[in-house]
Amino acid sequence: MNEKSLKVLEQYEIEVISTRRGRGSYICETNLGKKLLAGCGSSEKKMVFVNRVLEAMRQKGYLYADIAMENREGKLLTTDREEEACILKDWYEGRECDTKSMADVEQTARRLAQLHRMMYLPPEPESDDGNYVGEDLQEEFLRHNRELRKVYAFIRKRKQKNGFEILFLNCFRMFYEQAQEALEQLRGSGYAALREEMCRRGALCHGNFNQHNVWFPGRNQIFVGNFDKCRYDVQETDLYQFMRKIMEKQEWQQNNGYRILDSYDRERTMGKQQRDYLYIRLLYPEKFWKLANQYYNRKKAWVPEKNREKLEALISQQNRRNAFLKTIE
What we know:
Strand content: 5-15%
Protein name: Spore coat protein, CotS family
InterPro entries: CotS-like, Kinase-like_dom_sf, Spore_coat_CotS
Organism: Marvinbryantia formatexigens DSM 14469
Number of domains: 2
Helix content: 40-55%
CATH architecture of the largest domain: Alpha-Beta Complex
Distance between the termini: 45 Å
């Protein structure tokens, strides 16, 4: 977003006192409190759905809901001069969750479990709610595995290979076998029944739960924002997303993994099906697939050095990752 985007504020019934830059956004001090003006890649209908979710959570006691404000036309999305869709929503500032601090990480895991207890909203009849369902994980794994094989075949045919490509070929079998194992375990688990039950009950997940969407406004206060990827799904998807990021950054230290699981479990106890699901998600080598996908969708003639370094780090962590997975299997 640029300063021209601030003109969209004129389309709201609001008095703007001051503005300053945030991360890809503008933080606005207004007569109605602190607001965030940010670009939005979701549709108007999706944001109406997200607002319904947040309103329901607020009624259940979540005080930090970043609910979007309607403009003068009664719409949640407003187009700026660059034809970019923007949204203006309630905002609460604080420091971002520190991935190196287990105190922050444990508090965040507890907050996530608390949110999951609130995040139930049965789809309304004759609405689009039923469209906001997460992809079937079996289909996702199948697609990712096909893509991994495609990248492997492409690199093998290249006559001159760079450092990333040589490293990829050398470690491919190790990660691909794990990807296949995760798929087979998913097929033999109770995932289909769990997913169906969660969606029937109206269980929702944040959809993009990571440290960048978690802030600490004050002591023992945690603000979780940016629910625009919210959807009906197995809620432990959020725990997986957060846990994988933290464990990668902390090089799969077993004790820290147990502390995350224990912190979540104290607020919302997981059953066997949920634990099996979480294990299978952690077993799948998603970071390896992401690196392969980034490589294939960029110009193959040039691979950033950072991608090779990321792959080296992934390989170096594999033994510790496997050791942790074995303890929670």
